[in-house]
Amino acid sequence: MKKIDMLTPIGILIGISMVVFGVISSGGMSGFLAFIDVPSILIVLGGVFGTLLSNLFFQPIAAKLVGKTEHELFVKEVIIEGVIGLQAGQNSRFVQAKLKVFAPVEKRKLEEKREHVREA
User: Fold this and answer.
1) Are 60 and 22 in contact (CB under 8 A)?
2) Between these two residues, 47 and 83, which has the higher pLDDT value?
């Protein structure tokens, strides 16, 4: 999540609170109560709850979906590379070695250990 995305709700809340405190300080509580009506309360509550919902629920869900989508695209690219290699008539061992480059280093090392155990 970007730093600006995290600062936006804080700015909104500071702005709303400054307006409320400005109204209270200029006319006292009676001036504040005369200023506030139901639509104004709904606007303030909508902004606060919208900000909270966005930061607590929707942005984390969106980040997870982006990660899953990127992973799916990566897997499909690897599959396509393998199919293209086999269709081109390359040896399956060569294609396997070529596709291992896509795997993370930890998984490659684990696979090498498994191959050494199988050979022994």
Assistant:
1) no
2) 83
